[in-house]
């Protein structure tokens, strides 16, 4: 029998939503093993004084528990 756990993480990028997703999963994989899936809970585009845009995602990440 397998047991999975879900955690919520936030990640951001100045490049794109896709880059923010990738960066979040890669960072989570440094301390969480057996990641099986991730889904986007929300997306936000953040403008900083009109010049810089940041792409932020809130993710739910599932992984198998040993």
Describe this structure as you would to a colleague:
The chain has 66 residues and is an alpha+beta fold. It has one helix spanning 17-28; strands at 4-13, 35-48, 52-64. The chain has one domain (4-64): Dodecin subunit-like (2-Layer Sandwich), CATH 3.30.1660.10. Helix content is 18%, strand content 56%. A hairpin with a 3-residue loop joins strand 2 (35-48) and strand 3. The longest helix has 12 residues, at 17-28. The radius of gyration is 14 Å and the shape is elongated. The model has no long low-confidence stretch (mean pLDDT 94).
What is the residue-mean pLDDT, rounded to a whole number? 94
Largest sheet: 3 strands, antiparallel
What is the overall number of helices? 1
Gyration radius, in Å: 14 Å
Give the tally of β-strands.
3
Tell me the domain tally. 1
What best-fitting shape do the alpha-carbon axes yield?
A: elongated
- The CATH class, by name, is Alpha Beta
What string gives the helices and strands in order?
EHEE
The helix content is 10-25%
Oligomer: single chain
Which class do the helix and strand fractions yield? alpha+beta
In the sheet with the most strands, the strands line up as 1-3-2
Distance between the termini: 11 Å
According to CATH, the homologous superfamily is Flavin-binding protein dodecin
